[in-house]
Protein 1
Amino acid sequence: MVKQYETVIGLEVHVELATRTKIFCSCSTEFGGAPNTHTCPVCTGMPGALPVLNRKVVEYAMAIGLAANCDITRICKFDRKNYFYPDNPQNYQISQLYLPIARNGYVEIEVGDIKKKVRIHEMHMEEDAGKLIHDEWDDTSLVDYNRSGVPLVEIVSEPDMRSAEEVIAYLEKLRMMLQYLGASDCKLQEGSMRADVNLSVREAGTQKFGTRTEMKNLNSFKAIARAIDGERNRQIELIEAGRAVIQETRRWDDNKEASYAMRSKEDAQDYRYFPEPDLVPIVISDEWVEKIRARQPEFRTEKLLRYKKEFDIPQYDAEIITGSKHMADIFEEASAICGKPKKVSNWLMVETLRLLKENNMEPEEISFSPENLAKLVELTEREAINSSVAKEVFEKIFADNIDPEVYVEEHGLKMVNDEGALYEALKKVIEDNPQAVADYRGGKEKALGALVGQTMKAMNGKVNPGLVNQKLRELL
């Protein structure tokens, strides 16, 4: 009988917070910049430099904790996690072990028709490390400390997930929650959201956990899914061959679709944690918690319920639009300006999604304003431009956020409402296309389409095709 195995997965998700300055100094957190330019004595670990806690980091961490149904620790503190690594300038990281800011929460996920709660063990605040850049030509490694000291929240789940699908559902739910809060942009490609996967397998039906490994270097949801399947299969093969799974940290190589051992997995005692002597404990009052709770945004679930009541758009459209906080904001603001939510939804669902796909962009990268989208809707509604011109104008709005009214005026794209000019164009088209006219009069309806096309061309596309169709039928 073939043995069946169950995968047991827990995640450690690191999220860079959207503060303008670092967690313990006033250096910029902006991504990019020349190496080692967003630095100071504090974030480069110079002797005698002392940390000062950024209040906004605490408020973001509390907001995330509340959104994930956690208990907020009323007195929490920082600890030193000691380890040597070139991108860690102090030879320790300021983190939280003993009294993290939030504990005992959950995030509800949905995979197919099944809903389940993934429990949150804890969330803690900490500082990010710098970044090593490896130069294979010179066989050297250089260190960029711009990222050192960027504030992080680490969200540690319980081992409640059983498949790659559940892991991706959990990460997508977390990402959406964080983006709705404005706490992080969650750009995996820039490292502002990173997940370490703790995975073990066990024989189906048993309660005891197997030996787990931790996988790092996962910078996309697809890579995470592939890494989970790859590591699950590797561990099952070891067990089937009678060999032991070793508790270790492994690096996933997505190009080779394989993982490699990096180091043996550390336990907390290996880091010699002790209370951070340069920072006082944080005392969080009930009033402060309630102030943060009152500022929580309307999350996706509440938005969907409100959209059902307020807007005449299909449920599917509402789900796609609310899947991005940024797109939902554009939809709501544009609808408020023009009063045509269904039309706004159509532009977002069809042309916007098409252009996002073509340009390999995320909805959060949309740069056009709700005002310009609303103006385009109004131009089409009052038939100042036809549908083909509207699409051309929208592409310019998407790319450069141009004012559609100004663009239409400057490029002479307004529809011609001069019936005299249209009549002259129709007469000429009928004269120049006797075969198409004969075909139409002989019952070939398709021939009318050719005549409409010729008329549109003669009018430079600046006329309503419906009007052309109507007038042609009358003349013929």
Protein 2
Amino acid sequence: MNRLVLGSAGLVAAGLLVTACSATDISTHDMSAMSSTPATSSAPPATTVGAEAEHNDSDVMFTQMMIPHHRQAVKMAKLADTKAASPEVRKLAAQIEAAQDPEIQTMSGWLTSWGMQVPRTDGMSMDHGMPGMMSDEDMKKLGTLSGAAFDKAFLTMMIQHHEGAITMAKDEQSNGVYEPAKQLAGSIISSQSAEIATMKELLQ
């Protein structure tokens, strides 16, 4: 009888030992696997919101209006290359062209990314009722001038043109939500305000 009890006890003990060893092996294996697997966060992955989700109607209006506004300024600046008498006027015109040409490309890219129409570059009227825009008649008259007469007309018209752009840019800063457009508006306000001051000095 005692032998049977001892034998049974021995079997139970042996079984417990095997079970313990197996549990230890599995635990060690699992821990090893966990240590070799990169930790993952429970937070959702970061997403980049596209430009189409970040703009509003004010951004679209600002961009669609500022593109033809800039194009007219560049057209006026190109006339100064051959018609201006003053080196200062030619220098200012080159500065305006160099600044606004790339901005036209940037704004056109925004409209394309938003699925919106980029203003045409064909022979449509340049007078869209926008602040500071010259009429087609104004542009034709400027093209007939040269020398000191051109300089005076160019500076007078460009001051008005810049003031209109600043008005549009301030509206964008107040009502737009697309941050790059608002930053461009701020740049237009600062740079064109400085150019207005320069042009007023040249007129005097």
Protein 3
Amino acid sequence: MNTFELKDVAFSYSLDIQIFDGLDLTFDSRTTAIVGQNGAGKTTLVKLMKGLLKPSKGTLLIDGDSIDKQTAAQLSRRVGLVFQNPNDQIFKTNVLEEVMFGPLNIGMSRNEAEKAAREALRKVDLESKAEDNPYDLSLSERKLIALSSILAMDTEMIIFDEPTMGQDFAGKEKIKAIIEELHTEGKLVLCILHDMDFAAEVFERTVVMNQGEIILDGPTRDVFSKKEVLEKAYLEQPYVTQIAHALGYDESFIHESELINFLNKND
């Protein structure tokens, strides 16, 4: 089972601004959403996990083995990060070559890399765009290309940074299906989100961050039932939860189907 542990981690961008101080957090096989407002520490956290930043104190472990001395390049074989802005990730002028870059960079042969890239593009329904220039495509499609480039590397762990931003319903459904498939394959899946509805619908566990601290951590249903604590982090409950409360029900609904079934039974 894949695990990622952060033990007594401290990090600051400057001497007078401490982001983390003694952070302890373990990610396991559960799909996990990491939520919080801008400045909560979410992006800093995943950059530490990806090796893009180094802690001033503490240790990071994958499956019990320290990765403190590994570079971001070395970690890229094990930890994939899908950036929030695909323009920060895409640099090739051909979609297939873009998706092949990561696999080639971790040692796949060109034939293996092309096979993996085409399969990744198939998963996001963009195989017909393989010969296009990524910058001729929409933002939604570029985000899916950036996702494909990480899928093609077949890493043990995948971190999504705001994957639903700029996506329509169909795009969100594709991402949901991919997350479910990765989970079924035994991969560790984390996601930074501002989309509380998507977090509630898709993820088993939710971690709420506020100013570098973990203020809630547990099963998603339990976390989103804590309205007062969420408000301290300037977060709202999922839309379906708010509707149920407005109708006078105290139950913690996190899926639309749950509320609909409940209303039908009590009609």
Protein 4
Amino acid sequence: MKSLERNANDIRKNIVDMIYSSKSGHPGGSLSAVEILTYLYFKEMNIDPQNPKKQDRDRFVLSKGHAAPVLYATLAQRGYFDKEMLNTLRKLHSPLQGHPDSKKLVGVDVSTGSLGQGISNAVGIALGAKIDKSNVRVYSLLGDGEVQEGLVWEALMAAAHYKLDNLVAIIDNNGLQIDGKNEDVMNIYSLKDKLKAFNLNVLEIDGHSFEEIEKAFDIAKDTKGMPTVIIAKTVKGKGVSFMENEAGWHGNAPSLEQRNIAIQELESKGV
């Protein structure tokens, strides 16, 4: 797991740097999802950065599209494009827009941003793969605030109805959204009970543990006849002490001083 840890730490540093450079972006929910995307792109998914459009590739849909920095940093780390491009985040004419755009950036399968639409697209892709009798697997990352959207539950109902066991939805359960704690804004709990009532295979894990992430994805592959939803307990702003568990870092960029402190903290981890 050491190589995964090194990649995750590099991805975190790049997230901080690119958001500082753009003076805009969403660091909190990007940093909380780093281990999940690192595992997907470096171990789990059938992908090839040298052949990013190969027909039988697994698909990833970032349903919480505002967390685009974690996707961009992961794609660059995996070799889809040069890391130098990361500092063009949100700049005019850059393919790295504030939300992922599949028409502009290689490696992005679905344009996302409007919450709930990403998982809906993922369900459609998974259903298409089933109809085609393809081995393609589909992964989608949602925010926990995002599941307040009714569209999410319509998509999950359809996924269960069509027995899409090639679909894995991961909920980044960091407990916070732009306005504060989930339970204060619009209570979503108990997530596990709600999801089980939709006839879904529900797993709960530590979303920062590669061992637990690996076990969950293995269980998902072995589960037949129903989709899997992984509730990943995470820390918003993970890895940067002053950002951790602070809702205010949902959509704010660090100052130069804050950027330097964050990078120093991440470099001191020695992975």
